[in-house]
C-alpha cells in the first residue's frame, strides 16, 4: 500500500465522534408557545405505564429511526405523535448543541414553536400530562446544581501488569453537573434540565 492510497481515503471523509456508530441516538424538541400573551415552555410528564423513566418530566422526543430524514425529523415526528399535533403546527425548528452522555447515548435537542397549542391532545400511551412554565421564570431563576462523581472499576481480570503504574495507575476522575429547576410541585432535572439550561444560556448571550 502506498501513502497516496492511504491519504485518498481521508480526502472526502467527514469526521464523526469516534465510536458513535454504537451509540443510541435520540432527538428532542424544546417547545415554545404563547399562553396568556406570554412565551411559555412546554414539558411532558412521562406516562406511568412506560417502562423507562415513568413519571419523569421531559421534552417531547425519542429514538432516531432509520426512516427519519435527519434528527430534526425525529424531533418533529415524536412531538407530533406525543402531543397528537399536525406537523404543520410545529414551526421554526432549529438545533441546539447536541450532547454525548457518559452512558453511550447522543442527544440532539431542537427548539421549535407550537403555533396552535389549543390543539394539543397528549397521547396517553406515552404522556401522563403536559404543563407549561413561563420563559420569564427560567430567565429570573437559576437552577440548584450538584456534582455527580463517577468511580472507575476495572474488571477483575484487567491486565494491570501491562500498563505503567500497574494497580496504582492514576485514572482520570470524571464528574457531571446535575441541575434542578423547581416550579410549583414540579422538579425538572437530568438531561431535560441540561437542555433547558443551555437554551437559557443562548438566549442570555444574544440579548
UniProtKB/TrEMBL annotation:
E.C. number: 3.6.1.55
Residues annotated as domain Nudix hydrolase: 23-156
InterPro entries the record matches: CoAse (IPR045121), NUDIX_hydrolase-like_dom_sf (IPR015797), NUDIX_hydrolase_dom (IPR000086)
Protein name as it appears in the record: NUDIX hydrolase
The keyword Magnesium is assigned to this record: yes
Cofactor(s) named in the record: Mg(2+); Mn(2+)
The organism's place on the tree of life at top rank: Bacteria
Keywords: Hydrolase, Magnesium, Manganese, Metal-binding
GO molecular function: 8-oxo-7,8-dihydrodeoxyguanosine triphosphate pyrophosphatase activity
Keyword Manganese: yes
Pfam families reported for this sequence: NUDIX
Taxonomic placement: Bacteria, Bacillati, Bacillota, Bacilli, Bacillales
Enzyme class, spelled out: hydrolase
